[in-house]
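Weekly sync notes, structure subgroup
Attendees: PM, AL, DS (notes)

Item 1: joint prediction request from the bench team. They want all two components modeled as one assembly rather than separately. Inputs as received:
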Amino acid sequence: MMLGYAGKFLEVNLTTGNIKDTKLDEAVLKDYVGGRGLATKILWDRLGNKWEEISPLGSENVLLFLTGPLTGYFPGGRICVSGKSPQSNGVVGSTVGGEFGVELRCAGYDGIIVTGESKKPVYLFIKDSDAEIRDASHIWGKDAKQTVKILTKECRELLKKRFPRYGEWKEPALLYVGPAGENKVRTAVVAAKWTHAAGYGGYGAVMGSKKLKAIAVKGTGPLPEVANIKKVKRLIQLVCDNAYDNELWRRWGTGGGGYATGAKTSSEPVRNWQDEWHDEKSYGVDKFENRVWIKQYWSDFGCPTCCLKVAMVKTGKFKGAITDNPDYELQAYLGPNLGIFTPEENVFLASLIDDLGLCGIQTGNVLGFAAELFQRGILTKKDLDGIELKWGDTEAFGALAKKIAFREGIGDLLAEGTYRAALKIGKMKNVDVLQYAVQAKGISIGAHGIRSEKDYPDKIAYVCSVQGGDHTSTAELPLDGSGSELWEIFNDSGVYCNFNSFGVKRNVKLNLYKAVTGLELTTEEWVKTKAFRILQLQRAMLLLGGPDLKWNPNTDDANPPRFYEPLPSGPYKGKVADRVKVEESKKKYYEEAGWDDNGIPTSETLGKLGLEDVDKALDKLRH
Amino acid sequence: MPTVKKEPIWIARALSKCSGCRKCEIACSLTHEKRVWPEASRIRVFMLVPGLEFPHLCAQCEDYPCVQACPVKALSINKKTGAVIVRKKTCTACGKCIDACPGRIPHMHPTEKYAVICDLCKGDPQCVKVCQEGRWNVLTKVTRRDQPYKLYARTPEELTRDLAAKMYGEQGEEYL
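Output from the run, pasted for the record:
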């Protein structure tokens, strides 16, 4: 058995109710590691020959919850959720923080593979090697906080009944969907706690399509055995010391960004990216800290950073709203992006979004998109079911978010996500509204713009990424450099929090991989072979796409049109993405990635990596 | 290594500051089991309601009801540190110490037949070290005096209820 791995996967068929243990070849684990890499491989092996016909929201889709060998060891526990994405129609490795990955590994599993679909709402309850499918009709329709409350109580009572002499049972870890996931909203999340979210990819909708409300897991065993525990301890300490040395990062998390990313770097979405600059001091991190953060250092398993916060509104109209953080992304997308500049309003919307089980980034994106269409008179009050969607009207945005989660009226259309909604509205109104859609290949752009060139994403960050607009997996040249997407693949395949890896050298990560698994892994081997192979596979499935959408690299490997409009204000007024330079970089990226002029991986590239079957499948896309 | 003065100690606890990082569980299980093994940790972080995480560990009650309740004398008090020591070979995992504990703090080892209770790491508690190192300071080592330590042996439900009132006010009731 491989060190660092629990050694088996739980496979659940929701159509038949069959549950079994599955093993994967050691060679596969060595090449694809875990999480995102392994998801790509499992999906290709199981669905590759009919990928284009697989409906992401149909029973044939395979839904994956995968840990990696570093889960629980590298500080900051996460789990990777994947499957065929209802947003990009490719594969997204969507990770979420929390205790789930650690509990799962302590239960003896490296991951869960869910196939089929249930007729009735169910949840999966796992206690070590015992797994059962349980009725979830009593929690179907419940929001995040109610779901967590009911399931925590129910599962603890079950454990107490079954093991009466054990003592007090700690709560199991939960992953679940809110109403948005149940209603197959494409911007629905898979949530943990209240709520950390796996948002990119839209896997909440996939869970909902399978009528899988939640998974609860309690593992009582140790984390899988490692090759060198002393070395593991030493490397964990190194990662922690790196975090302890950065007190402001711990104190503020990403919450400093709501103000600074606008005021300092001019790269924050303001009113659907019509601007990226603001200087609203009402939105300062001090305001969040002093007015709404009631717990300032909040962590997931083993995390020294505590970038998370618990926020609660204690006064005024939005009194009682509770959410985590909001982190920078939600500050931005449910704040300035909607013309909102106070912590209380932002916390209210984030809390609502959490409760509904929506992705704050991508729902914020589609809300901003709708508001711009209202501003331009393309969507009217009547189109919006009587909502006057004015910038800064927090209650109006809240009302529309509810409609999206329940697919009511205009919400049904916007529940398709920005790109698909833009296609439909364009047809309906006979206007090109794609020019206002700030997304890449079906995935909303994270809240980091490129026009000022002062933020981290490169001009082709979203153009060439295999996960579209995902700001946690951006493309950068050189492909073998430390800022390349290949290292995001490492984080998402080892499955730990990339926020604890800032300032940590690549060698430390590779050494930890070695101390855990006993396997040598060099930078060269990772970037030239293993991660490179995962990248090609992700790229191939993204381009095969279908059945409702297909991407053409010539037109869809592109920045949103908005990035070619000059910034209208602020210190970087007039700055704009340069089409010529973007095209040059894109061409260079294709070359380094081994893709042809049309962005398709070449036979030579795929052959070298042993992906001959992928090469064959891509033949039909080649001109 | 500085020599640790052997005197009865206590771990003072500021529960509402707990981040839920569970580094105490990692440190404890590495010390006692040589593995990262959260459920075998003598200190366990509960999160019955998100945001209300807290470590649950032995409070070394003045009258040690668990020691008195043990029918096979598997539990004893270490005079130097004040810790409750479980004699693994003698313990029958009957659970009487759990019932006797006002906080229901002991629990069974997940794979062995004995109860696990904090042994204060012979006077140098590793959970305190990691908590201090990260500047959370939820756990602090203090000298044991004549104080009502038993107050700190409360059940996870009661602690959650208390913390909910402090953190979320009246609204906290909704999440319990």
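Discussion: Chain A has 23 helices and 17 strands.
Action: AL to compare against the crosslinking data before next sync.
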